[in-house]
Design brief:
Elements: H1 2-14, E1 17-22, E2 31-37, E3 47-51, H2 52-56, E4 66-76, E5 79-89, H3 91-97, E6 104-112, E7 118-127, H4 133-152, H5 156-165, H6 167-176, E8 182-192
Parallel strand pairs: 1-5
Antiparallel strand pairs: 1-2, 3-4, 4-5, 5-8, 6-7, 7-8
Length: 200
């Protein structure tokens, strides 16, 4: 009986195959992982989390705290192709920014890229000193205006790369730096507004 059970387990493992998971073309179609599965249909819509350092091949303080998220959209042969669906800064990193005697200003905006991809962008602004409520309001307005303008003038591929590699944060910092004692601006999270359709 035990031998029969062991044989069934071995046979089940033999039916599984390894699939290479690759990023979209605007991330150079890099391999971001491997998945084992007995049925390629089970791979579709699976979410893969990858550290920015692993993606870029450059490990530094600037890449260590950023995670990128991809969803498997298509399987071709033994390759699972993905779509970028957002990113997130690690909570521990965000906590190090929000120190005493500083103001933390949060702003969330829904935007649409030039090629029609809807996204939600969550921004974080850290000031060097405590600031008044009116300054916070001005910063939020400036961030909202800037992100909507930037997104509407960029295609999804460009905006995704700027999100991942910090260029967008730098642009937002330039948009608010004259309002008050702004220390840092980060895009702490981005999410593509996905829609799923049931197959007939």
């Amino acid at each position: 009986m035990a031998d029969a059970k062991k044989t069934r387990l071995v046979d089940k493992w033999k039916t599984k195959q390894w699939y290479s998971v690759v990023a979209p073309e605007f991330f150079d179609s890099k391999e971001i992982g491997q998945i084992v599965s007995s049925d390629e249909a089970n791979l579709k819509n699976r979410v893969i989390k990858v550290g920015l350092g692993e993606m870029s091949g450059t490990f530094s303080p600037n890449t260590a705290y950023t995670n990128l998220f991809f969803r498997v959209k298509e399987v071709v042969g033994k390759t699972a192709k993905t779509a970028f669906i957002g990113h997130e800064l690690m909570p521990g990193y965000i906590r190090t920014l929000a120190r005493r005697r500083r103001s933390v200003i949060n702003q969330v905006d829904d935007v649409t890229t030039k090629d029609g991809i809807p996204m939600r962008i969550k921004m974080l602004c850290i000031t060097g000193l405590k600031v008044s409520q009116s300054v916070k309001t001005d910063v939020r307005k400036a961030l909202s205006s800037a992100i909507k303008s930037i997104a509407s003038n960029a295609d999804f591929a460009t905006l995704s790369q700027e999100l991942a590699y910090g260029k967008l944060s730098a642009k937002l910092f330039n948009a608010v730096k004259k309002i008050g004692p702004i220390k840092r601006v980060e895009v702490r999270k981005s999410e593509v507004k996905e829609s799923f359709h049931k197959e007939a």
